[in-house]
Amino acid sequence: MNPKKAVLLPKYLKIFEQLGENIKLARKRRKLTTEQVSERAGINRTTLYRIEKGDPAVAIGSYFNVFRVLNLEDDFKTLAVDDEFGRKLQDLDLL
SMART domains from the entry (predicted)? Predict the structure, then answer.
């Protein structure tokens, strides 16, 4: 079976690219090598390279493990935490 590849519009790919750049900067600020981070995250260096490039095809668990290694897991927990639009839709349904 062939898994389907996620198709993202260019404006959304830019978000992933910025995320990857932020991860790379966080790693460098901590003076960690790609080898150290990939080993601690349980991924290979190629996967870390893809994460730092913002590849949306990399599993979210791999992204999380890199966040964990960089002590950024609290940042990861804030993803989608404030679903203002969803709450408005829910409130409309309650009327």
Answer: HTH_XRE (SM00530)
Distance (Å, whole) CA 35 – CA 58? 18
Tens-place pLDDT, residues 50-88: 999 999 999 999 999 999 999 999 998 898 888 888 888
The answer to whether residue 89 scores a pLDDT higher than 80 is yes
Distance in angstroms (rounded) separating the CA atoms of residues 36 and 40 = 6
Q: Long-range contacts: 62-65, Cβ < 8 Å, 24+? A: 63/23, 65/41
Cβ count within 10 A of residue 63: 22
- For 68, the token pair is 């964990």
pTM of the shown model: 0.84
Within 13 Å of residue 71, how many CA atoms lie on the same side as its CB?
Answer: 3
Question: Would you say 58 and 17 are in contact if contact means Cβ atoms under 8 Å apart?
Answer: no
